[in-house]
Specification:
This protein has about 190 residues and is of the alpha+beta class. Helices cover about 25% and strands about 25% of the residues. The protein has 5 helices and 7 strands, in the order E-E-E-H-H-H-E-E-H-E-E-H. The protein has helices at about 50-55, 60-75, 75-80, 120-140, 165-170, and strands at about 5-10, 15, 35-45, 90-100, 105-115, 145-155, 165. The strands form 2 sheets. Strands 4-5-3-6-7 form a 5-stranded antiparallel beta sheet. A two-stranded antiparallel ribbon has the order 1-2. Strand 1 and strand 2 (about 15) form a beta hairpin. Helix 2 (about 60-75) runs antiparallel to helix 4. The two termini are about 25 Å apart. About 35% of the residues are buried.
């Protein structure tokens, strides 16, 4: 199941391909689709009270644990999201940039695979579970912390080619080469955050 799993219906409108002619859910048959190199990037933001990340980091190895949870979740996306295809992931890269003074964590997850179907769900799942793990760690210091603006940021490969979120095109496309942040930093999250 990917954001590109839509086809043109009889009326010319896009039809959701995870429904058969009778309206029943089914897994899309991707047998005839070409095997291509596919990549996707998703982003989200965790917002907390200023200082909450610092308070939590005193007791927990916050960022590495959250990144590991996100990577693990990406590998399990097929079992978490109904009708998804199990994919042999070639790479999952999760980056977390914490601005402790502002109480903001910018989470970016990128996935890569050589396969017949897209990898967007895996990127979104990695991003979401990284954010959820940060929320779990923050729950005692800041129960009001929230996960916001989870969205697909970029995808490439397959029949539909490359897609970039409009807000990313107007600023800077997500980087896949920036170093990971392994501890709360004083650097503000990128202005390309959703």
């Amino acid at each position: 199941m990917t954001s590109g799993d839509r086809t043109s219906g009889p009326s010319g409108d896009e039809a959701f391909t995870h429904l058969d002619a009778g309206g029943h859910a089914h897994m899309v048959d991707v047998t005839a689709k070409p095997v291509t190199h596919r990549q996707a990037t998703a982003r989200c933001v965790v917002k907390a009270t200023p200082g909450a990340f610092e308070a939590t980091a005193k007791d927990e190895d916050l960022v590495p644990f959250a990144r590991a949870a996100g990577i693990h979740a990406a590998k399990q996306a097929w079992s978490l999201i109904p009708l998804s295809h199990p994919l042999p992931l070639d790479d999952v890269d999760v980056r977390v940039n914490v601005d402790a003074a502002r109480g903001v964590a910018d989470v970016r997850a990128s996935t890569s695979v050589v396969a017949r179907t897209g990898i967007e769900i895996e990127a979104l799942t990695a991003c979401a579970f990284t954010g959820l793990t940060l929320l779990m760690a923050l729950r005692n210091d800041d129960p009001d912390a929230q996960l916001t603006t989870l969205a697909l940021w970029h995808k490439s490969g397959g029949r539909s080619g490359t897609w970039v979120r409009a807000t990313a095109r107007s600023t800077t496309a997500p980087s896949t080469t920036a170093p990971s942040t392994t501890a709360p930093s004083t650097t503000a999250p990128s202005t390309t955050a959703p």
